[in-house]
Amino acid sequence: MKDFTLKKYRELLVAFKSAGYEFYTFEQYLNKLDSLAEKFIVLRHDVDLKVENSVATAKIENELGINSTYYFRVIPESNQPDKIKKIASLGHEVGYHYEDMSLLGGDIDKAYEHFKEKLEYFRGFYPVKTICMHGAPTSKYDGKDLWKKYDYKELGIIGEPYFDIDFSCLFYLTDTGRMWDGYKVSVRDKIPMYQDIWTKEGKIYHSSNDIISAIGGSLPTRIMITTHPQRWTDSSLAWWKEFVIQNLKNIIKRIMLKVRS
Asked: How far apart are the C-alpha atoms of 95 and 125, rounded to whole Å?
């Protein structure tokens, strides 16, 4: 079976549930720090494009009794009110996938005002308590730099994954690059120091099947998983299109990383 299909996504979730993993939204995780399960997954999705794919994964999770977090951008490909409402109605957390520094040309004050405006917009769908930076690999601006001057907690935000997770206690898996070991081609979606430790320990998984095979073995018991639902589809045409486009993006990102280094 091909990887990055909805069938494979369901299989991955079922494997975790069968092994006794509990699932948390990011908000739930932060509110349960003193009473977490022995084995759990904080499941997060970055809705960059093709929001209809996120509705599909949200339905699968709902059918399996799983709640997860969906972070939406403000661009039209992600910000589609009817689909955001649908995902929230299925019991999932909604958050803001912010990229205000890029959108406002690095002007930190204008970016903050834009952030506050869009935060309130998304709170029209869900009482947003968590946010997550959009990597924007082609931009020279890092969205996280917004918090060098301002404090999101003053706006009622309780967490941002890149600031409020102790990755010495939580293993991180992301499908960036359309693979589970794509940190080598990621510009910002990576945990550099801990990734080196995990690599030395052999905790490297390329495919979804690699992860499934490692459950109960080398795979840690406490994990944050980030997916980009645009990658997951049962349509052969869409699957191959995403495959080709992502491979081209990976080449470009490798070049960018070499230039920046």
From this structure: 9
